[in-house]
Specification:
The structure is a homodimer. By secondary structure, chain A is α/β, with parallel strands linked by helices. Chain A is globular, with a radius of gyration of 19 Å. Chains A and B meet through helix 3, helix 4 and helix 5 of A and helix 3, helix 4 and helix 5 of B.
């Protein structure tokens, strides 16, 4: 592949699975994973970045495959003690996971950027893949509901995605500056593909796409833009994407995801279960690929990553 | 004992043992434990108060009797993860212990005083004993050595008390205001005894005594001032007190501790091993009591607490 570069836009766990698959295809430091920060929040005085951390843990093999989130061999003594003292304990912070939040909070307080800190952490774990936040500026997703707006983690974790969603705001998005390396790679002639991982379109990918100049830079880039559907057989593999789609008045289908991204896309990958929607995707002017998108094993992740890159190559010509 | 009140000045583990003994003598909320804050420090962005926490854990029965410090059933996953990321890991922060530091750092950041926070924590644990910091203002003990000054925890933990000590500074002491309840109780006509627990005289007790107005208020109080020797048979039960005394050019004896406190004391309790020093203590104008001062069991703590109170009563008349 020579100097060809790949960008993957990622939310949390689902996106991190494909990011890991891509990272195992000998791309070295030519793979740039751009993580959503709209899920970030301040909790117990700590700055917590769930999507960045899910990618860090997945890329380093530190994630918990069974639980599906957080770190393996995690402990909960901190949470137990927090509860004894009457502390706010609706958000589970594992004992190992805490180290990252404490170090990050300290680094940001002394003036490091989120990118600086992320680079220090990925270096300490010897990761070759570049992982960057979509921006160093705070962007905070607010979920609109009939009873008012909720900070994302209050909606997602505290209220278990129960409130009906009517829309989203990304606080801070208007002034947030896209991360430097992200923008430089979008403008790089060696860029081979921009991959939208199967993360939640509304709260994981849209914040990235809503950054000033990002959509424009993506459209101008020669590299094809390929999305992988996070909806399979009408359901989200993980998280509230399908429920959100129903509440927003759209069908909970892969096709509706393709329509949501619209003319930004050159290609769209649907699961075999949704093969019947491929023609309608094609009719939108988006090249469809039917593949196996559910990633259970490490081999699944690598296989989908290979499919995505080959498909991008085919979209290029 | 009616409304009689007791003040105990305490450092960390040694002082907390006697504080626990006193707390079990039906004093209810008439026991005020005043903890040193000179050992406090900022680490990883967290405000850590080892002496306050040692007292909290001991009074609540949460302390680790075997290890001799920190919490029982403690875990170290946070420290392991911190090490993986190359974080500063010379100071052991247990997974459970962390909850207190995170909550405190958050409370102080939002403007609560250290007293407010300590009260919230002791209430959440249903402690009846009043535990207060000596001051809400930052006081930081610096250890003078031939190679310059060291922050206390750098001397104590990072450098394992190895540097030779030539003196101490208590940064911030000149402007620190003694805690309100501490001063009010010193001035209370119902005060029955002021007990200097067997903590390190130089770095645990002297910071408290050095607060503006504290010595004067102690001298003016009718209540007798009783110290328990932290030196037994020429050795400190725990910590560097004996080593410090040698380096400061004084004998490592109980008698030298009595001389160090000097005419502040009405009574001084020595261990049976040091009974031969009782007459010389008496010659200083300080009433001696020879007792069992080494507290191994809970019964030892209660017995010494009873001895101290009875001795205080005898010093009163």
């Amino acid at each position: 592949m020579g100097d060809h570069k790949i960008i993957a836009l990622s939310g949390g766990v689902g996106g991190a699975k494909l990011a890991l698959g891509l990272s195992r295809l000998d791309l070295g430091d030519r793979l740039l994973v751009v993580a959503n920060v709209g899920d970030d929040f301040e909790h117990l005085g700590l700055t917590i970045c769930p999507d960045l951390d899910s990618n860090t843990y997945a890329l380093a093999g530190l994630n918990d495959e069974v639980k599906g989130w957080g770190r393996a061999d995690e402990g909960w003594r901190f949470m137990e003690a927090l509860g004894e003292f009457g502390g706010e304990n609706w958000f589970n912070l594992g004992d190992r996971d805490l180290a990252l939040h404490v170090l990050r909070t300290q680094a940001l307080a002394k003036g490091d950027s989120l990118s600086d800190f992320t680079r220090a952490i990925t270096s300490s774990l010897d990761l070759t893949t570049h992982l960057v936040p979509m921006t160093n500026d705070p962007v905070r997703t607010m979920v609109q509901t009939p009873d008012g707006a909720l900070a994302f983690q209050h909606y997602f974790v505290r209220d278990r995605c129960e409130p009906v969603v009517t829309g989203f705001d990304f606080n801070g998005i208007a002034t947030a500056k896209p991360q430097r390396e992200f923008m430089a790679t979008l403008a790089d002639a060696d860029l081979q593909a921009i991959i939208i991982t199967p993360s939640n379109p509304f709260v994981s990918i849209d914040p990235i796409l809503s950054l000033s100049g990002v959509r424009e830079a993506m459209k101008v880039a020669d590299a094809p833009i390929i999305a992988v559907s996070p909806i399979v057989a009408g359901m989200a593999i993980k998280g509230p994407a399908a429920k959100m789609m129903a509440e927003l008045g759209m069908p909970s289908t892969a096709l509706a995801v393709a329509e949501h991204y619209g003319d930004l896309l050159d290609g769209f990958i649907l699961d075999h279960s949704d093969a019947d929607q491929a023609d309608t995707v094609a009719a939108l002017g988006i090249k469809p690929l039917v593949s196996k998108t559910v990633m259970q094993s490490l081999a699944d992740r690598e296989e989908l990553a290979r499919d995505v890159l080959a498909f991008a190559e085919s979209c290029r010509s």
